[in-house]
Amino acid sequence: MNHNQTISLFLLPLTLLLFFVNCQGKEDNQGMETNVAILGILNAQTKATEAAAAAAKVCETTIDDTYASGSYVSFCSPTAGTGKFIRITGVKALGNNGYLYLFFGYSATPTSVTPSSTGQYQFVIGKSVSNTNPFAWFRNSEYGNYQGGQTLSGANPSLSLSSEKEICINLSGTDVAPKVNFWVTGVNNADCQSKTTLTSSSAIIEYNSWPLTTNVFSKSSTSHYFRLSSTALLTASKIFVSSDSIL
Asked: φ, ψ for residue 30 (rounded to 5)?
């Protein structure tokens, strides 16, 4: 055996080993690439599922120019459930005695601004001729009217509605009469678009002492309604709804 043959016999196993290592490396890389691709698909699917779940919890309604003053109109309900947190933009008083009403827990379109059955709740805000500040209050079948002496779940906040305001309310609790809250963006450091700022201390109204704790917020109704007593006296732009209570 000559010198060249000896070298060839020595290099053959080494060449085969390097070839095997190279092939194994390619397989490992392909395996890693496959795993990364699968993880990417799973991550995208998870994000899509989370996005769909989040989208199901919110909705919005535009109050357009075709709205007829005094009419009771439904606004959106999230597909995930009844609205518990509501944000309203563009609330502005153009004159005295114009009011915005929000209705919750109704099985049919309201025909009166006074709740008549258990499970029905309202929020009302507007500018009265009798006071410089606006009135805002929650009510149910036990509490019919703020001006009628029901002051605990209402307020006469020191703010003006002469310029557009963003307001928000929250209804929490399902087994007893709800705790209700009302905030205005810019008052008490509250921001209706930043839920971390919406606390008990930043709320203009926080009330959970309804006379009948059994007057539970209706679970059977998923419809919501609004009414503007006169668009010449008070207007609003959009109503945003979330099925998640924040308190």
From this structure: -65, -40
- Going by C-alpha positions, the residue among 154, 153, 102 that lies closest to residue 133 is 154
Q: What domains can you pick out in the chain, each with its CATH number?
A: 58-242 (2.60.120.200)
HEC sequence for 11-79: HHHHHHHHHHHHHHHHHHHHHHHHHHHHHHHHHHHHHHHHHHHHHHCEEEEECCCCCCCCCCEEECCCC
Measure the CA–CA gap between 57 and 17, rounded to whole angstroms.
60
Is residue 137 within 8 A of residue 150, CB to CB? The reply is: yes
Write the pLDDT tens digit of every residue in 16-69.
444 444 555 555 666 666 666 666 766 666 666 655 666 799 999 999 999 999
Q: Which two tokens stand for residue 15?
A: 């060449």
Q: Is 196 helix (H, G, I), strand (E, B) or coil?
A: helix
Structural tokens at position 243: 């099925």
Whole-model pTM over 0.85: no
C-alpha span between 228 and 53 (Å, rounded): 32
Question: What are the CA-CA distances from residue 79 to residues 53, 54, 57, 112, 219 (Å)?
Answer: 10, 10, 6, 27, 14
